[in-house]
From TrEMBL:
Belongs to the CYRI family. Keywords: Lipoprotein, Membrane, Transmembrane, Transmembrane helix. It comes from Oncorhynchus tshawytscha. One of its GO terms (biological process) is regulation of actin filament polymerization. It is a lipid-anchor. The chain crosses the membrane at residues 6-23. The gene is LOC112250531. Residues 41-342 form the CYRIA/CYRIB Rac1 binding domain. GO terms for cellular component: membrane. GO terms for molecular function: small GTPase binding. This is CYRIA/CYRIB Rac1 binding domain-containing protein. It is found in: Membrane.
């Protein structure tokens, strides 16, 4: 064969070999520079400490986060006043039962107000973190890599949010108790029975709390609204600066979960679950904030890879997280969502 004819033949054979050897998917990954599209580095969720530059914001956010465990404990211990309320409704003329139900519900309403108040504090903390993690001249990837203590706090907010909402969904008593409280206040049928609670939870506060607890995932809704408001209020800051923080965090978590060299650096198995929760949390938040959502082909989040990583974990650890992707995202059922992604979450 002449050299002139051999060269095209050689190139064709070489590319055929590459495709057979590496698989079309792997070759496409190289051609599309997948690694560039999906940033990756080790984010030290266990040991990151604030630098001098991070200290001021870190202290402000830490003041909020240090109360998060007590909020979760309070929610977990919430038993409700279902029996007392049923007794009072079934015996409307028995004032003793009316008083018993009322006195059971009032402390619970005060507790629900505390949870709601914490969501407002969390909203401000998140906006403070977003301001730090999106400001020029650094890219979101540079921010997250350089300011790991703030990135860790951002992750802790997402972790708390998913845990709170998971617990809330299992406690239907919350809405039943609050509905009874509002009905009783509006009817004003019980006289001189601790009605000074209205100074604690007035009508305006009750309306706001009612909207909060009516959400299936109230803390996630709070974060979503806070992030959207942050974008709206900072008109000179491109939307991508904010959404790229979320997509970068999702990518970093995914890569850490699928890379043994990274997971071997975790000191606790709980960090693995923490990392999964954070990944799912930023995906959901991204899906609510980005106009096209997280599932669209143009999304900067590798949804197929993220779901695959979750499905490789023990089922008990990820069932709730997969359900969160199915039921609390905004764009999963859009026509633009690839069928293979929908199939993976069925």
């Amino acid at each position: 064969m002449h050299l002139k004819g051999f060269l095209p033949f050689f190139l064709l054979s070489f590319f055929s070999f590459l495709i057979r050897f590496a698989g079309m998917g792997n070759l496409l990954k190289v051609l599309t520079r997948e690694i560039e599209n999906y940033p990756h580095f080790f984010l030290d969720f266990e040991n990151a400490q604030p630098t001098d530059c991070e200290r001021e914001v870190w202290n402000q956010v830490n003041t909020v986060l240090q109360d998060s465990e007590s909020i979760l404990s309070g929610l977990q211990a919430y038993k409700g006043a279902g029996q007392e309320i049923r007794d009072a409704i079934q015996n409307p003329n028995d004032m003793l039962l009316q008083e018993r139900a009322w006195n059971s519900v009032c402390p619970l309403v005060i507790r629900l107000k505390k949870f709601y108040g914490f969501s407002l504090r969390l909203e401000k903390a998140l906006q403070g973190l977003l301001e730090s993690l999106t400001c020029p001249p650094y890219t979101p990837t540079q921010h997250l890599e350089k300011e790991q203590a703030l990135a860790k706090q951002f992750a802790e907010i997402l972790h708390f949010t998913l845990r709170f909402d998971e617990l809330k969904m299992r406690i239907p008593a919350i809405q039943n108790d609050f509905s009874y409280y509002r009905r009783t206040i509006s009817r004003n049928r019980i006289n001189n029975m601790n009605l000074d609670i209205e100074s604690e939870v007035n009508n305006e506060m009750a309306n706001r709390m009612s909207l909060f607890y009516a959400e299936a995932t109230p803390m996630l809704k709070t974060l979503s609204t806070a992030t959207t408001n942050f974008v709206t209020e900072n008109k000179t800051l491109p939307l991508e600066n904010t959404t790229d923080v979320l997509s970068t965090m999702a990518s970093v978590c995914k890569v850490m979960l699928e890379t043994p060299d990274y997971t071997s650096r975790f000191n606790s198995e709980d960090t693995l679950l923490f990392c999964m929760r954070v990944m799912v949390g930023v995906i959901i938040l991204y899906d609510h904030v980005h106009p096209n959502g997280a599932f669209n082909k143009s999304s900067k989040i590798d949804m197929k890879g993220c779901i695959k990583v979750l499905k490789e974990q023990p089922a008990d650890n990820v069932e709730g997280l997969l359900n969160a992707l199915k039921f609390t995202t905004k764009h999963l059922n859009d026509e633009s969502t690839p069928k293979n992604i929908r199939t993976m979450l069925q």
